[in-house]
Amino acid sequence: MLNWTIREEGYEEQNAPSLGNRYLIGNGYMGIRGTLEEYEADKLPAVNLAGIYDRAGGWREPINLPNGCFSYLRVDAEIYKLPEKQPVSHGIELDYRYGIFRRHTTWHTARGNVTLTTERFASMAKVNLIGIRFRVTADFHADVELVTGIDCDVWDLNGPHLEEVSMGGQEEELLVTARTQEQKIPVAVAETVFASYPVEMKQVVKGNKILHRIFFITKPGEQYTTDKWVGVYTGKDCDNPAKEALELVRIKKENGYDSSLRAHKKCWDELWKHSEVIIKGDSNAMQAVNYSLYHLHSIAPRHTESLSIPARGLSGQTYKGAVFWDTEMFMLDFFLMTDPATARILMKYRIDTLEGALQKAAHYGYEGAFYAWESQEGGYDACTDYNVTDVFTGRPQRTYFKDKQVHISAAVVYGILRYVEWTGDESLLDTKGVKTIVECAKFYYSLLLHSLTKDYYEIRDVIGPDEYHERINNNGYTNRMAKFTLEKAAEVVKKAMADGKLPAEYDGEELLRRFQDGAEKLFLPKPSEDAAHRNVIEQFDGYFDMEDATLEEVRSRLLHEKEYWGGAYGVASHTQIIKQADVVTWLNLFSQEYDEEVLRANWAYYEPRTEHGSSLSAGMYAMLACKIGEPDRAYPFFLKSAMADLKGGGKEWAGLVYIGGTHPAAAGAAYMTVVEGFGGIRLENGKLVCKPSLPREIQGMQFRIFYRGQEYEVKIEGTKGTVTAL
Ligand code: IFM
Does the domain at residues 276-320+616-726 carry the CATH identifier 2.40.50.140? Predict the structure, then answer.
């Protein structure tokens, strides 16, 4: 049986940021960090909104709303809060089956002990709603004041983002309204409370907080329950966010806490019905995988038709809340197989943000669509020229992620076509969809360079998945993905021409000529024949000539723990040490094109040279290991991905820039490893097959997947797998 709860007993103040990530709850519309109710901005609480961005200074990032979860306790006129008042006992837990965060804290007071327990959820049934339940028990006649309201002192990485913040109240509700600085998008947070026992209630404004003060006297041992509803609306949801937020909390109060909670749990039951993974013989792995899936579910933008998932989910403003290739290459398969409607929303976002990609390409003097490396609304690229701050000088360091990670457009094409292939739903390949693919191919065609002395085309001056080596030539992964895009675009154009659906602006024959020519002549590095690198593919031109120092040696050269390893002066830049799977990512995607000995040689060569400095890395090694029939080798890499948020410990700094948060790409990679790697689920000649290869820790597995509109039950025992239509 799966243990659906994770717990943390005891209190360590310094763990607040990491627990905020691990105990996150969310519903795709908002993410609420797993922080305590009494925490103020310095402890990084956040109600982080999906898809609404604002600029402050040079950085654009998503907004954190005024914190409607804010509360604390006063007993006998003294405040009881963490960390100020040390508790007798304290713990938090997350029920990740239902996305419910709980805390319990007991304090010793001059007259006896008082215990506060809370639980909260971000409703899956009504995404604008947060429900919170407080319970207070004391072993004496305590004079209690529960203080609860909305804290407008918001934690921001680069804020403040809200202006015209106004705090007000109606009879029983509190209301905060504000608008974003840049686009003037109105936001509203309303709250109301209900106590099931006689209380005296007051409203106050104290500094940046608007609060309900709820007074009552406890009988020893009796429990006092107060429910709270928080409604959150923005100008993107409706015309009058304040009115909607107030109405929502009023209605929910009338209906009662239990009814909101029931509706919320029902949604989660439905999600798990299609996605729970049962792993026999390995309860750790089963917990880590389902916990990873919990995070993916919590950040899926089901409330809209077109939006994607930021690289750090909804855990805060890291990476500017932007969408990376992480979605297509790491998270998409989970949604394709368990929740295809969400997969469509993710891919629709890319099609709808084509305009931004066209502008970006034009800006650099290319044709077609160059997608944002860090995509925000409209496809705006939030990646700055200076994405790292140097630890020694405190100066911003020029990085070239935005300008040179051209493989992003291929990831978009890959994602859209994988969606179509897996779901059979061709509706995305309407005029806009076809245009998206054609424009990405045009972009790559315009990148191709043809030296007068060579009979092939090159792509120079790029960054591959391994971001430590900047501005390199002929990165194998990039070239292969560009070739893929050109080939697939040619197929799409041919079909659109045959169906009479090619957008009128295109000359189909000319597009075909270019795309076929580009795909055919684009240089791809081949497995090496020299003795020192037999069968290994050089990651980019000249990679083998770089210093072949060990990872330990390179690490020992660091002068500062937060030092950035890449870029101009990084310790890895002039060596063969790479940040994350690069050639291995390529071979994982195109494994059928190479002999097993090539796949093995590359895995063996690159793994010791990989720092795994990105949470994306381990999953690719796990999956390629499965493809070479080495599930036992895959296992620790799989576990590393699956535990990325459960265990934490990933990199939190790029130079002096904070990059902490949750890691949904690693969660997606863990899912892919289980289902496609260990489970061997794949398409062979358009047919769904299951060819399992389990590591020794795992005896069997059971899960469901969707394929082409049909749901299947997959059961795996040892080496035998059965797939049954439901
Ligand atoms: O997309 C990744 C990239 O590959 C490595 N750095 C972090 C990004 C966001 O996860």
Answer: no
